[in-house]
């Protein structure tokens, strides 16, 4: 079933993890154009090139790529410029780019706080604002924005005192954008992943005992993988969710409710 047939989809932080999983899922469900943002170093450049080849060889989607630090507002302007040049419009934005450098609160350098906020929150604000303006001005008007928040928007973490506030802010940003942008037929929703095995936490989960403990804390007895998040993202972007805005969807395998 082509849930997003002929839609143009922009994904930030698309070279790996949840962003990569979303790109593959959108291609599978009929997106005609994918605008994939990546950081731009040698490693992510190689990853995005391989992803572009995989998508274009296995689907009908056309892929355009754009590099840049999402913390720089100029990157978001470039994303829109390249997207419109390549496809004429942007129908879906998945604001996914983020970092989580685990750090102890009392000794955390202020630079760690600043960089985490700049990438996770400032970057999300910049790209949502830039793409929302495009969605407002295009014909027909409208679109769907999905912000990748986190279960960390709802609970704390001793090594995440800099990270959890940014994810709570993304949830709040999507709620306020739903109010601000509804008049332009733009929907805004948040996905809150639980513990997903990606590069962002691979070092933390390399501890076998901790990984096993995290698996046991979920109702489903396993950690999530990027495709577990990609499905709900595609749903929120699709017309199946055409009356869903300002909502948040917790996708955590039952981690949050499993108190006992």
UniProtKB/TrEMBL annotation:
Family annotation (CDD domains): SDR_c
Recorded superkingdom: Eukaryota
InterPro entries recorded: KR_dom (IPR057326), NAD(P)-bd_dom_sf (IPR036291), SDR_fam (IPR002347)
GO molecular function terms listed in the Swiss-Prot or TrEMBL record: oxidoreductase activity, acting on the CH-OH group of donors, NAD or NADP as acceptor; quinone binding
GO biological process, one term: rhamnose catabolic process
NADP recorded as keyword: yes
Keyword hit for Oxidoreductase: yes
Swiss-Prot/TrEMBL keywords: NADP, Oxidoreductase, Rhamnose metabolism
Domain Ketoreductase: 7-194
Family as reported in the entry's similarity comment: Belongs to the short-chain dehydrogenases/reductases (SDR) family.
Entry protein name: Ketoreductase domain-containing protein
Organism from which the protein derives: Mycena pura
């Amino acid at each position: 079933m082509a849930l997003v047939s002929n839609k143009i989809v922009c994904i930030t932080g698309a070279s790996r993890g949840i962003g990569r999983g979303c790109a593959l899922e959108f291609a599978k469900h009929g997106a005609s154009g994918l605008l994939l943002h990546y950081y731009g170093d040698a490693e992510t450049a190689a990853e995005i090139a391989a992803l572009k080849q995989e998508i274009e060889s296995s689907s009908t989607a056309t892929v355009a790529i754009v590099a840049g630090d999402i913390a720089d507002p100029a990157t978001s302007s470039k994303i829109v410029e390249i997207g419109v040049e390549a496809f004429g419009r942007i129908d879906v934005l998945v604001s996914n780019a983020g970092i989580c450098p685990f750090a102890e609160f009392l000794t955390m350098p202020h630079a760690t706080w600043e960089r985490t906020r700049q990438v996770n929150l400032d970057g999300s604000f910049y790209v949502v604002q830039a793409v929302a303006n495009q969605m407002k001005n295009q014909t027909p008007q409208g679109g769907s924005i999905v912000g990748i928040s986190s279960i960390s928007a709802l609970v704390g973490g001793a090594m995440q005192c800099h990270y959890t506030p940014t994810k709570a802010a993304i949830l709040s940003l999507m709620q306020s954008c739903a109010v601000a942008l509804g008049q332009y037929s733009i929907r805004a929703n948040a996905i809150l992943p639980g513990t997903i095995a990606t590069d962002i936490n691979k070092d933390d989960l390399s501890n076998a005992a901790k990984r096993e403990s995290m698996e046991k804390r979920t109702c489903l007895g396993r950690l999530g993988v990027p495709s577990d998040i990609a499905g709900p993202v595609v749903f929120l972007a699709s017309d199946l969710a055409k009356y869903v805005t300002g909502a948040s969807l917790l996708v955590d395998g039952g981690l949050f409710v499993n108190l006992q």
